[in-house]
Amino acid sequence: MTKPSGPTLPRLSRRRFLAAGASLGVGVIAAPYVASADEPTLRITGWGGKWGDIMKAEVGPAFEKEFKCKLQTDTALPFLPKLQASSRSAPIYDVLHTNSNEQWAAVEMGLVEPKIDAKLVPHLADVYPYALSDKIVGVSIFTSAIGLGMRTDKGYSGVSSWKELWDAKYNGVRGGYVIPVNSLGQAFLMMCGTLFGKGQTDLDAAYAALEKLKPIKLVDFTGAMEKMFLSGEVGLGVIHDSGIYRYDGQNQPIDFVTPSEGVLSLEQVLTITPGSKLKELANAYVNYMLSAPVQKKLAETVWYSPANKMVKLDDKYDAKLLTTPEKVSKLVQVDWKWYNAHKDDIDSRVNRIFRA
Amino acid sequence: MSLAPAIRMNGLAFFILPSALLFALFFFLPIGLMAVMSLLTGNPVVAPNVAFTTRHYARIADDPYYFEVIWTTIRIGLWTTLAALAIGYPLAHWMARIKSRAGHALLLMAVLAPMLTGIVVRTFAWMALLSDKGVINQTLQSLGLVSQPLKLMYNETGIVIGLVHIYVPFMVLTLTGVIGRIDERLEQAAENLGASPLRTFLEVTLPLSLPGILAGSLLVFALAISAYVTPILLGGFQIMTLPILIYQQISANFNIGFAAALGMVLLLVSFVLVVAYNHVLGRVSGQRDLQ
């Protein structure tokens, strides 16, 4: 019996098999990157929740389509230590979106550029003065008003001043933020200096006031404070307006109080990193976020007050958010540069004040 | 002389190599870097003009607040360990001595079941129970047993309750193996010689299970002093422990050097504990090489 003749396949050695397998693996992994190699990727930071949802579903894709790029958003806090650990010449982000206190820390460390170039971001001409004031690094694209949140089903009506938070009847249901880690807590500390002392930087007056604020329930972010209000753990506490207004129409017994002494400004700030290789695109992103349609869309989704004064919100939002020069004038901005210079001492003191 | 036998790899070495690499890359290297960072004024990779300094350690030494934080961390660890031992030992003894295979399986499932849920979820569940408006306080108030909510949360009690729930399985599983290996005939002999069950337990079972108690305690203590999520949530940010302080320094103060120094202190506490544990274990078990 003879062996049938015909074309013979090359012998598949172990080496060939491994090489083919490795090539296939690399190809599969690299395929999406090769496919999008011609599209630049702008790396930004951003929030999760409703902000993240609308950015992912509408605002982000529209920017990608218009500028033929990819947006890569990091929503995992904390952002600054990651930027701090990355190379200055090849930073992990092109655009840093965070609150003003962290932006000031970032600019002190040389991690972000102090100002946005108005020639490259035309919409800077449309923003309220607070968004570009000397208390701001980069540009504030939105702001919230930090004031008091209140349960409306506990007979607490008539609250109109920050000082009512010190009323003994709120013992056990008083809420605030962890000062060392949260912008609202830090801003509130400065407000304590204004309320009971000579001004924002009167730390002794602020510390004395904080001592008298105990017992108080502390949280580290607004999502947790919202839950404290909704569950009734907190009846009166510090919160920003968006944290209350986002439950509008859901029949929740909570309301936002604008204290007569003014509301503190919680700015959403954008800056560009000095080492970014996509400066033009980064500036385009800042300009895009300040454009009227994007401002309106985001403001009406997450209840942030738009920085662009040309934006016209629907009546429901216009009635509550800071959309006129008169309303905006109630905002109290914090001197974060001063605060950050004293942060270690402040943290050390407030950690002692609030220890159980 | 041929070098071949000298360079010939033992087959076992191939199995040890991955874990050795893992330890080198993800344990010794990060700890070495942390030790270096704790002695620098900044990050030399990204910042110019970085110099050696002892200021981070001086800051810890100069401020009694940090000693309070260290003591709070150790105190929570000790209470958690004691409570986990008190709850875990009887359960482990039962598991080790139960004759029914099905009974053992059921007990094992009961011990392991909580571990199938994440720590965050379990901690939130405790918050739902222990908070001022939680199930326990609402029930007590509705029954008229208390007029004001009991302080079950926002203090060390709440943290210890949460940690014990999480770490009891570690204690039980460690103890079960050790108690299971104790020869029951020794206990029977003691009872035949007239010892009461309590005396048999105290003079036979307990001393022989000491290595398990020490190992379980070491494990639970180490986990408790390095816990972050449970202390921060059940302590309501009003109980400061070393892990919370370290995270605060990195995430909000961006002071990596000081955070590294605090990390080294936490490591030192753990190291002292391991050395003491080995010393005690060596003495009670007669294994001198452990000392």
Automatic annotation (TrEMBL), chain A:
Tagged with keyword Magnesium: no
GO molecular function, one term: thiamine pyrophosphate binding
Keyword Signal attached: yes
GO terms for biological process, alphabetical: thiamine transport
Superkingdom, natural source: Bacteria
GO cellular component: outer membrane-bounded periplasmic space
UniProt entry keywords in alphabetical sequence: Periplasm, Signal
First and last residue of the signal peptide: 1-37
Coiled-coil positions: none
Protein name: ABC transporter substrate-binding protein
Organism lineage string: Bacteria, Pseudomonadati, Pseudomonadota, Alphaproteobacteria, Hyphomicrobiales
TrEMBL record, chain B:
GO-annotated cellular components: plasma membrane
Occurrences of domain ABC transmembrane type-1 (ranges): 70-277
Classification via Gene3D superfamilies: MetI-like
GO process terms (BP): transmembrane transport
Compartment list: Cell membrane
Annotated keywords: Cell membrane, Membrane, Transmembrane, Transmembrane helix, Transport
Keyword Transmembrane: yes
Protein name (Swiss-Prot/TrEMBL): ABC transporter permease
Species the sequence originates in: Bradyrhizobium lablabi
